[in-house]
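It would be a great kindness if you could assist me with a short task in structural biology. The matter concerns a single protein, recorded as an amino acid sequence and a row of backbone structure tokens. Kindly check, if you would, that the fold set down in the tokens agrees with what the sequence suggests. Thank you for your consideration; the sequence and its tokens are set out here:
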Amino acid sequence: MADVKQDKDTRVDIWLRWLKNNPITSVIIVAAIGIGAAGSFYKSLPDEWKCVKCLIWPSPQYVGLPNNGWVYVGYLQKNDVKHWAQPSKVDIVTMSDAPDRNYPIRAGDIVRPKMPLPQVIIGFADTKEENVLKSPPELVGVIDPKKDYTGRMLDTKTSYLVNDVSVAAFPEHDAVMWLRLTPWAAN
């Protein structure tokens, strides 16, 4: 018989064999699978359950800022204020049971922002929450971020109760819609 040359293990084969038989590698792999599964499970939870961590560890960023304030949500058609002129900045989570609906959103609806939205109270820098019940178009024509923004951003994971609706209509222009929102108690 001819000499049959036997294959020698390459360095890669030796390294792979060592990894397979190493208990530390096994622990790392099992831990990675566990972390991945936990992350997937957390992402699949309803937003209301995820907010529990917010209740336990409130964000120091918004401590002392008002929960109640106004948010600009979009333009309504100038000839038909029951329809949006462009996509709104909020989604309706739950509509109120009230039969009259003059605008696409009404007081009592539950909404969720599509993007982070700044909370506005006119003159907040000077008078804090004095004007919280007055809509921005009622008091000023132009919002000044330095004076009127409260510093709170309404996030996309929280639902908010619509307390008031304000629509400012100007001749030959689309109407501007503002909502006074508070975090929804069910969160």
Summary: The two ends are 81 Å apart (CA to CA). Residues 52 and 72 are 28 Å apart (CA to CA). Helices lie at 11-20, 23-44, 47-50, 52-56, 124-127, 136-139, 145-148.
